[in-house]
Each structure stands twice: as C-alpha cells, then as structure tokens.
Known about the structure:
The protein has 163 residues and is mainly alpha-helical. It has a domain at 24-111: ESAT-6-like (Helix Hairpins), CATH 1.10.287.1060. Helix content is 84%, strand content 0%. The chain contains 5 helices and no strands. It has helices spanning 3-9, 13-20, 24-59, 64-123, 127-152. Helix 3 (24-59) runs antiparallel to helix 4 (64-123). It is rod-shaped. Belongs to the SNF7 family.
Amino acid sequence: MSKISKFFKGGGSAGSKGRRGPSPQEALARLRETEEMLSKKQEYLETRIERELALARQHGTKNKRAALQALKRKKRYEKQLNQIDGTLSTIEFQREALENSHTNTEVLKNMGYAAQAMKKVHENMDLNKIDDLMQDITEQQDVAQEISDAISNRGTFGDEFDE
Length: 163
C-alpha cells in the first residue's frame, strides 16, 4: 500500500487505534482542554474589544476614520465572541452527555455483575427444598407452641386425676 493511500485510509498503527475509538476518559479530557482553550480565547477577545472601544473613544471626533476602524474591529471581535459562546455551549452539552452515558454504562455493568452474583447464589437453592424447609419450620413452631401451652396450663394439672 502506498504512503498516500495509507495516509488517506488511516493505515498503520494509528488507524487501528482510530477504529477502536477513544475511551470516555480520553474524550472527556479532550473536551475539557477544548473548553479551556476557548475560554482563554474568550478572555483575549474581551480584552481586545475593550481596547478597540477605548481606541475609538480616544480618536472620537478628531480622527473619525480611525474611530470607525476601531469600531469595525470591535464588531468583528464581538461576532467571534458570540461564535465561541455557541461552540462552548455545544461542547458543554456534549461533555455532559458523554459523562451521563459513561455513568449509565458503569451502572449497567454493575447491575449485570449483581445479577450474575444473584444467579450464582440461587444456583444452590432448590424451590422444593425451600418448601420442605418452610414446612419443617412451621411444624416445629407448632410443636413448640403445644409444649408452651402444656407447660402454661398448670391450673388443670391437679384436676385430671381421678379419685
């Protein structure tokens, strides 16, 4: 395969990693890095807007051309700032969705793990054995109640003898 086709088809070891896709942690880290970069760019544009506004005020009526140019640059910076705001909102939404998806995946894995554990515990249980055990327990409780009743009825103990 030629170098050009490898480049465009994603051949080689880098391509095999791309097919697997990034882990959620890697994607979250990249989204956070992008958010930080855009936030810094926002701060930079805000200072540039303030600077252009100050420049326009400084030129005021003395140099109308320079003041208009400063206002035009300010307008461009504001447009870029609005675009960055929209991009940041989209990235934040995507990051939150990815975090929620990752959480849901982990919860689902843990629920599957718990289901397997319950299945393993229930393997050793037989429903017929449980019914037999419950009947034995009920019978023994009845016997214990009869013994308790017999012991507690001492008033009739003396009346049962025939003279």
